[in-house]
Amino acid sequence: MVRALTPASDKPFPAWQGMQYLRDMMSGRGKLLNLDNDRYGQREWASVRDTLARTHVQGSNQ
What we know:
By secondary structure, the protein is mainly alpha-helical. It has one domain. The chain has three helices and no strands. The longest helix has 13 residues, at 15-27. It is flat, with a radius of gyration of 21 Å. This is Putative cytoplasmic protein. It comes from Pseudomonas amygdali pv. lachrymans.
């Protein structure tokens, strides 16, 4: 039955996976409980430009 619903294709995910995801999100099964946002302490946002510049500088010292 599964093969009839999902014929061979070059798509990375079968159709049933999207349907299962939608079912779980709409039913509340996908809700994350006990989020611990403070686990890593206070964080400040950094731009991509600053992050790449800092990574490049650190990488060139090695």
